[in-house]
Amino acid sequence: MGTLYLVRHGQASFGAADYDQLSELGQRQSRRLGEYFAGRGIHFDGLIAGTLRRHKQTLAGILEGMNRAGEHLAWEGLNEYDSEALIATVHPGKLPKPDSPELYRHHFRLLRDAMGRWMAGETRPVGMPSYADFVAGVTGALDHVRANHFGQNVLVVTSGGPIATAVGAVLGTKPEATIELNMRIRNTAVTEFAFTPKRHALLTFNGIPHLDAAEYRDWVSYA
C-alpha cells in the first residue's frame, strides 16, 4: 500500500494581470505545509507537479519547509483548466477585475456555468483540451503513481480542478459533482489516497492540518 498526497497550490494572484504567481501568503502557506510534513516525519519517495509556475513555486516552498531538495516529474496533464477561456464561452467580452464581493460571486457563477457546458461537450474553449482529454491527463498521473510507486509516499502538487477530477474518478461521481468539489478546495489543502497497483482509495479530502492552530487562522484562502 502506498499513499498519494495531492496538494493544491498556495494562494495565487487572483484578479492580477498574472494569476500564475504565488502571493506572499501563498509562499508562506507552502513553506508551512513543508514544515508540517517534516514535523510529522512524512517523507516522499516521488515528487510530481503540474508545469504551471504556481505549481513549481508551491513545490519549492514545501521542500524549503522540509529542509530538503529533490527533482520532480513535470506532468502537463496536472495543469488547471483555463478559467478565462471557459468564461469566454458563456460571456462575451472581458470581465471587470473582481475587486468586490459581488463581482467575485459573478465570476464564479459564470465559471460554474461554463464548466458544466464544457463537461457536457457543448463547448470547446479556445486553447483547451476537451473535457475527456482533461480527465485523461489527470487519470494518467494516477495510473503512473500506481505503476511506479507501490508501497511509497508520493507528493503531487497541482490545482483544484485536477484534484476534484481525481477524487471524482476514484469515487465514480458524475462530472458535475467535481464542480462542487473544485469550488471548495483551499490553498495548500491536502487530499490523500491510499493506492495499490490496481486502485486508489480516498482517505482524506481538502485537509489543512498545517493551518489548524489559531496563529494560522488568517492564512486560510481559496483563490
TrEMBL record:
Q: Does the keyword Hydrolase apply?
A: yes
GO terms for MF? hydrolase activity
Query: Looking at the record's lineage, which domain of life comes first?
Result: Bacteria
Show the Pfam families listed in the entry. Answer: His_Phos_1
The record's SMART domains line, in alphabetical order, gives:
PGAM
TM ranges are none
ATP-binding keyword on record: no
Matching entries from CDD domains are given as: HP_PGM_like (cd07067)
User: Could you tell me the keywords of this UniProt record?
Assistant: Hydrolase
What protein name is recorded for this chain?
Histidine phosphatase family protein
Origin species, per record, is Ramlibacter monticola
